[in-house]
């Protein structure tokens, strides 16, 4: 695992436990789908985004929206999960007025991005 983050705190508004669940789900998926010994990267960005990147097989473009559906595990995916983790992440982000998206990392796996609205610092 590798974590990169700004030197200063990054503030987002929301339920810390739910946000932790969302990030944990993404990290667990990244570890599960990465080859043994490959690095999983978590990047916190100053504008309130969090990227979780792996070196797994990536998500086919035609499945990128479906991976957030309940019980969807993809075609030819061998895992013990029931397909709820990414659906939970999506619901958490919707509850926080944010978003989650996935894109492929130039043949090096997937990058899942959580985007939070700016925190009200008043």
Explain this structure.
- The structure is a single chain.
- With 122 residues, the chain is α+β, with helices and mostly antiparallel strands.
- The protein has a single domain (2-115), classed as Histidine kinase-like ATPase, C-terminal domain (Heat Shock Protein 90, 2-Layer Sandwich).
- Helix content is 24%, strand content 20%.
- The protein contains two helices and five strands, in the order βαββαββ.
- Strands 1-2-3-5-4 form a five-stranded mixed sheet, covered by helices on one side.
- Helix 1 (16-33) links the parallel strand 1 (2-4) and strand 2.
- The protein is globular.
- The model has no long low-confidence stretch (mean pLDDT 85).
The CATH homologous superfamily is named Histidine kinase-like ATPase, C-terminal domain
Q: What is the CATH C level class, in words? A: Alpha Beta
Count of discrete alpha- or pi-helical segments spanning 4 or more residues: 2
Rough outline: globular
- By secondary-structure content and strand pairing, the structural class works out as alpha+beta
Distance between the termini: 35 Å
**Count of DSSP E strands?**
5
Based on CA atoms alone, the radius of gyration comes out at 14 Å
Largest sheet: 5 strands, mixed
Average pLDDT: 85
Task: Please identify the oligomeric state.
Answer: single chain
**Which consecutive residue ranges, at least 5 long each, have pLDDT under 50?**
none
By CATH, the architecture is named 2-Layer Sandwich
Proportion of strand residues: 15-25%
SSE pattern: EHEEHEE
Our count of domains comes out at: 1
The CATH topology is given as Heat Shock Protein 90
Give, in spatial order, the strands making up the sheet with the most strands: 1-2-3-5-4
């Amino acid at each position: 695992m590798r974590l990169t983050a700004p030197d200063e705190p990054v503030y987002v508004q929301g339920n810390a436990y739910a946000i932790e669940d969302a990030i944990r789900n993404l990290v667990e998926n990244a570890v599960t789908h990465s080859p043994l010994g490959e690095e999983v990267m978590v990047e916190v960005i100053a504008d309130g985004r969090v990227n979780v990147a792996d070196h797994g097989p990536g998500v086919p473009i035609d499945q990128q929206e479906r991976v957030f559906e309940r019980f969807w595990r993809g075609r030819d995916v061998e895992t013990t999960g029931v397909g709820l983790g990414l659906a939970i992440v999506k619901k958490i982000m919707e509850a926080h007025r944010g978003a989650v998206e996935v894109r492929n990392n130039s043949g090096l796996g997937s990058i899942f991005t959580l985007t939070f609205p700016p925190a009200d610092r008043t």
